[in-house]
Design brief:
single chain; alpha/beta; Aldehyde Dehydrogenase, Chain A, domain 1; Aldehyde Dehydrogenase, Chain A, domain 2; 38% helix; binds nicotinamide-adenine-dinucleotide
């Protein structure tokens, strides 16, 4: 695979920015420049806005069946190209090839799911009070969408937003991640070649802050979707609110993991180690604050440490690598700072804790124990391969720690007691809770947070509602 340079896709054409400006793309395994991406300026955004506006009326009226058929063709193209696209993703993002391929194939399943949802955008007929009156609701596409996605899952985040928009009958301008531009562009190419009309789907890259500041208030744009940090999400949601635009926000989390004394400890260790070090922990739903009940704490910790020490860290080009580098250089000082702070406040470093070598952005799988709640890492998501394992005595302690933070994205728990499982279901404040197995992030189930973790879902049958508006019509005769 030769890593390709990436251009903008506007009104059905792949082209450089009108200014000719480009940004470098770096290989996280070496830090070397491997390619470049076009940097859109105001004139490119205006062209994308004009295309999204002009194509909206016809796309909205295109039958849902035809929209769904076209989308499913794109899914088939994505599956057929999965090996090639996965290699691009690994090269630009650093994750091992099987993870990149898994993400690409899962992207095809997401397209298929939302393609079918296009055919189920039902309205209602509401019984009238007066004879001869018909009352009905009509669901229709909300309008052109502006969407912003991050670098940790270059395809997964783009595919959810694009598929939802297309299924609903919206047009879309997607600002995909500048750090990892080629794999999302390859995804967009699948949609274009499947027959999505020119102008309906537009792809840009550039300065994220400049692009969001221009697109969100723009009168053409009717709906915003953002995945990224809570801090930026709050700023973008405020801007969307000022302009009365609907917004879906998929933001950060700080997932608690509750392991009770009656848990299947070995199953929990195996499932959590696999999940934690996936994508080097750069996952918004990554399990992070482990709370383990005293009687099983030693066994769990020793088991998890053994798994963490066995993780083979290396570049994607080595088939043996279980975990790649961090995706960008700024994560290294961020993790080092959090680990240093945890140790200064009394936490214990049980394994890892350091950058590996000085080429690329590799970091050791890291386990900290006994970290006090005022440490930064107990309050801000590490977004890296770092776990905190703390102990608790009474169930109440674990529930209150789990619910202590303003975040509420994912939560994990292991217990064989049905009473505890029921209490978890009732009391854990998270948009997604997985008990005794890892079962999140399928196309057909909700994906989204509560509290500071965001607003709305981009999975499951509710998701398409956020791209539709409801109009009520009552008529006599
Ligand atoms: P960041 O907050 O600078 O950026 C996060 C994402 O938002 C990036 O993709 C970035 O391009 C985009 N972004 C930043 N400012 C923007 C703006 N004004 N308008 C539109 N988009 C904007 O952080 P980062 O260094 O890239 O990542 C660090 C933190 O971000 C992580 O610790 C994590 O909390 C969060 N993050 C979350 C997710 C997620 O899946 N929810 C993904 C990536 C990053």
């Amino acid at each position: 695979m030769t890593y390709p340079d990436t251009n903008l896709f506007i009104d059905g054409h792949w082209r450089p920015a009108l200014s000719g400006e480009r940004l470098p793309v770096l290989d996280p395994a070496t830090g070397a420049e491997i390619g470049s991406v076009a940097k859109a300026g105001r004139a490119d955004l205006d062209a994308a806005l004009a295309a999204a506006e002009a194509s909206f009326a016809a796309w909205k009226k295109t039958s849902p069946l035809l929209r769904a058929q076209t989308m499913r063709k794109a899914a088939d193209l994505l599956r057929a190209r999965a090996d090639e696209i996965a290699a691009m993703m690994s090269a630009e993002q650093g994750k091992p090839l099987p993870q990149a391929k898994g993400e690409t194939l899962a992207g095809a399943d997401i397209i298929d799911w939302f393609a079918e949802e296009a055919r189920r955008t039902y309205g209602q007929v509401i019984p009238a009070r007066v004879p001869g009156v018909t009352q009905l609701t009509v669901k229709e596409a909300i309008g052109p969408v502006a969407a912003f996605t991050p670098w940790n899952f270059p395809i997964n985040q783009v595919v959810r937003k694009v598929s939802l928009a297309l299924a609903a009958g919206c047009t879309i301008i997607i600002k995909a991640p500048e750090e990892t531009p080629a794999s999302p562009a390859a995804l967009i190419r699948c949609f274009a070649e499947a027959g999505i009309p020119a102008g309906v789907l537009n792809l840009v890259y550039g300065d994220p802050a400049e692009i969001s500041a221009y697109l969100i208030p723009h009168p053409v744009i009717q709906k915003i979707s953002f995945t990224g940090s809570t801090a930026i999400g709050k700023r973008l949601a405020a801007l969307a609110g000022q302009h009365m635009k609907r917004a879906t926000m998929e933001l950060g989390g700080h997932a608690p993991v509750l392991i009770f004394d009656d848990a299947d400890v070995d199953a929990a260790v195996a499932a959590l180690a696999g999940s934690k070090f996936r994508n080097a922990g750069q996952v918004c739903i990554s399990p992070t604050r482990f709370l383990v009940q005293e009687p099983v704490a030693e066994r769990f910790t020793e088991g998890f440490l053994a798994m963490a020490r066995a993780v083979r860290v290396g570049p994607w080009s080595q088939a043996s690598s279980d975990m790649g580098p961090l995706a960008n250089a700024r994560r290294i000082p961020a993790l080092e700072r959090m680990i240093e702070d945890a140790l200064a406040k009394g936490g214990q470093l049980r394994c890892g804790g350091r950058r590996i070598g000085n080429e690329g952005w590799f970091f050791e799988p890291t386990v900290l124990t006994d970290v006090p709640p005022d440490a930064e890492i107990m309050n801000e998501e590490p977004f890296g391969p770092v776990v905190v394992i703390n102990r608790f005595r009474e169930d109440d302690e674990a529930f209150s720690e789990a619910n202590r933070l303003p975040y509420g994205l994912a939560a994990y728990a292991w217990s064989r007691s049905s009473a505890r499982v029921q209490r978890l279901q009732d009391e854990i404040r998270a948009g997604m809770l997985t008990i005794n197995h890892i079962g999140l992030s399928l196309p057909e189930v909700p994906f989204g947070g509560i509290g500071d973790s965001g607003v709305g879902t981009e999975g499951g049958s509710e998701a398409i509602e956020a791209y539709l508006q409801t109009r009520f019509v009552t008529r006599l005769g």
